[in-house]
Amino acid sequence: MAWDDVVVDGTTVDYAADHNEEINQIKAKLAKTTNVTAINDTGIADGEICLFNATNKDIRTSDKTIVTTIGADDLTLPTSKAVVDKVTTGAVNLTIAIRAGEYLRKGQAIYISGTSATIPVAYKCDCTVLGKSRAIGIAQSDMNPGDATIDGFARRGGTLTAVDCRTTGTVAGYVNPLQQTWNNGDLLFALGGANAGGLTNVRPTSGRSVKICYAVNGNDPSCTLLMHVMENPVFATCAASEDVVLRCGDNSGTNKVSVRDYANNEVASINSDGVIKGTINDYIKLDPIGCMIPTTAPAGIDQAESGAGAGNYVYGLFTYAGIGAPGTGNNLQWRVILPEDWSAAGLVSANVHWLPTAGTASEYVKWHIEATQLAEGDVISTAFSSLGTCEDQLLATPAGKVHISPACTPQAIAGNAGNEVIFRVTRIAAQATASNQDIRLLGVSIKYIRTLA
Question: Domain span at residue 396?
């Protein structure tokens, strides 16, 4: 059986260059009573579109010329909108009736949005916009949206001939807006933004990767485009108990699965040896029992006991009288050694854990957090940089209840890159109604970034 033979009900039908002869072969080999009416090629130009008229049971060309009539027992088409494209040189084209929602040029990539009198309405495909990246094919001809009652066509499968793909000329910029040199057989992708509807032979680095067609004869002013519409998947799913497999191109750690941001920067990867590169969030807890006593210490580091259970704790007492500017009011400092793989240029944030001794839900406590990082050779008295503030409202009947402040805005720590970091926390005046009670600081949670190599 040759590649271009057809199998009908288990019977091989040899390919025939003449379409009517092929129909006769099918009739003879099947030996069935069903009539199969052939489309008479006489007077039909190559590429002519024929429409099935369901009312009159005939097939007509676009100028309404009757090609053939369908009998009662003959093969019929399913709807009045079905399209039969004349078969030429062995190619089969799939064409869909559309109307233009905007001005379209022949060969531009298009998508469907809505209908007009049951006819799909087409617009220029844009690979950077989710709702516009669902390509249906390319415009078969120039279409003007000014007359919404005139049908046009989208080519979905097969080929479209006589498309102007030049880099210069009166229509340059419609199909090839980047004025690229296209080689014979180049795969073309949909563009986006100001170049929506256009095609490119370079896979876009931003937006959806949407394959549209092949350029059969490059930048020809009468180029043939071979359709290959396919969107790259963005959502991989599987059935229950089924694995999702991503296979690299080697087994020596050279090839990898790369994760990139919208600007095409790699932010993480896993290579064929299973080595992961990227970043993760990590945390440390600064406890009062491990603090350094600063120049302006809190009223004291003490222990509280509250009977059975987990009620025993160590705290730093921050009095209302000790409220002051960062570093001058009651504060605690911690010197910590972070892991070697911590991101010294990454963003750091903090939450303060504390207990009020009294107060009401209308009162606030505010904390200021600072830090500095030290590398070998740095002066030990390097100045702090601010990591911001966090203001927390007292809960109802707050005494003895753990309070956790909102996180301060993530910021990078100033100083030379080093893994020795000093943190300082000061109680400062609240902008809202300030609590005039003494506060017990339980600890500080620091969130930072680690880089996986």
Answer: 282-452
Among 421, 318, 331, CA closest to 369: 331
Which is more confidently placed, 64 or 230? Answer: 230
Q: What are the φ and ψ backbone dihedral angles of 69, each rounded to 5 degrees?
A: -110, 140
Residue 236's pLDDT band (boundaries 50, 70, 90)? confident
| Residues with Cβ within 8 Å of residue 359, at least 6 apart in sequence | 394, 398, 399, 435, 436, 437
My answer on whether 319 and 379 are in the same domain is: yes
- 41 pLDDT above the threshold of 80: no
User: What's the distance, Cα to Cα, between the start and end of the chain in Å?
Assistant: 56
From CA 389, how far away is CA 414, in angstroms rounded?
A: 16
Q: Which helix (H) or strand (E) holds 25?
A: helix 19-30
Q: What is the CATH number of the domain that holds 345?
A: 2.60.120.260
pLDDT tens by residue, 141-158: 999 886 656 678 999 999
**How far is residue 120's CA from residue 114's CA, in Å, rounded to a whole number?**
6
Q: Which residues contact 72 (CB under 8 A, 6 or more apart)?
A: none
pTM: predicted TM-score of the whole model, two decimal places: 0.57
Q: Could you tell me if residue 253 is left (phi over 0), alpha (psi between -120 and 50 degrees) or otherwise beta?
A: left
- Give CA–CA dist 201/189, Å, rounded: 6
Give the model confidence (pLDDT) of 273-317 as tens digits. 999 999 889 999 888 877 776 655 555 566 665 544 556 778 888
In a domain, 13, yes or no: no
Q: According to the model, what pLDDT value does residue 212 have?
A: 96
Calculate mean pLDDT across residues 53-79: 50
**226 and 243, same domain (yes or no):** no
Are 243 and 346 within one domain?
no
Output the six-digit token pair for 39. 């489309």
In which residue are the tokens 């944030």 written? 349
Domain count, the chain: 3
Tell me, what's the pLDDT at 288? 84
Confidence of residue 1 (pLDDT cuts 50, 70, 90): very low
- The rounded distance, in Å, linking the Cα atoms of 359 and 84 is 82
Q: DSSP characters for 211-263?
A: EEEEETTTT-TTEEEEEEEEEPPS-----TT-------S-SSS-SEEEEE-TT
Strands (E), 255-298: 256-260, 266-271, 276-286
How far is 174 from 443, CA to CA, in rounded Å?
Answer: 63
Diameter over CA atoms, the chain: 106
- Tens digits of per-residue pLDDT, 247-264? 999 999 999 999 988 888
| C-alpha–C-alpha distance, residues 38 and 23, integer Å | 7
- Residue that is written with structure tokens 């020795």 in the block: 420
